[in-house]
Amino acid sequence: MNKIDIKTRRTLLWAIFLSVGFPLGIAMTVIGFTKGQSFRAMGIVGIILIVMGFYGAPMVWIHFGQLKYFSRLKAQIVGDGIKSVKMLAEVHNRNPEVVANDVKTMVQKGYLDGYLVLDNERIIDKTTMRDKDYEMMEAESRPLPFLQREVRAYQRRRRLSVLQLENYQRDAGQIREGIQ
Q1: How confident is the model at residue 52 (pLDDT cuts 50, 70, 90)?
Q2: What percent of the chain has pLDDT over 90?
């Protein structure tokens, strides 16, 4: 079971607890404060449940809906192999920029490990990335820290020697100069 599924189930349980706790809190408050001194603790717990249910349940349900959306996105990217942001946007009836930002959010939160959004158009699996993908990213003048992080990951994955890495960076610089 992956990280997003665990978090989705946990959020669902909290949402159900808070939704059920709200009416139970009302009943506990009424019973707790009308039955006498021995039931005061029940009344206080009822007030706490009312507040948590009234304010917390809507927020948790909204968060649950967002996690379900992320779960569907992940299933379509990983399971169905959809790598186009435009296609995902059409499927979910959303703006492509919003979908690209959602996928970036999923990558940042660790829900979608090993993927990268390129130009807000393509979703690339980093584990199967080819050399030409790195060349294309560098040729498009990506910010330097981003490239350094990706090149280091590339080096670790491919176990390149320092000389090979220097040649790779030099070739990428020549490609960048040729495009400009």
Answers
A1: very high
A2: 32
For residue 40, the tally of other CB atoms under 10 A from its CB is 12
Which tops the pLDDT comparison, 151 or 96? Answer: 96
- Predicted TM-score (pTM) of the model is 0.66
Burial of residue 138 (CB within 10 Å: 0-12, 13-18, 19+) is buried
Residue 25 in contact with residue 46, Cβ under 8 Å? Answer: yes
Amino acid code (one letter) for 177: E
Contact between 21 and 29 (Cβ < 8 Å): no
Q: Reply yes or no on whether the pLDDT at 131 is more than 60.
A: no
Q: What is the DSSP string of the chain?
A: --HHHHHHHHHHHHHHHHHHHHHHHHHHHHHHHHS-GGGHHHHHHHHHHHHIIIIIHHHHHHHHHHHHHHHHHHIIIIIS---BHHHHHHHHTS-HHHHHHHHHHHHHHTSSTTEEEETTTEEEEGGG--HHHHHHHHHTT--HHHHHHHHHHHHHHHT--HHHHHHHHHHHHHHHHHH-
Q: Which residue has the higher pLDDT, 107 or 14?
A: 14
Distance CA 49, CA 17 (A): 10
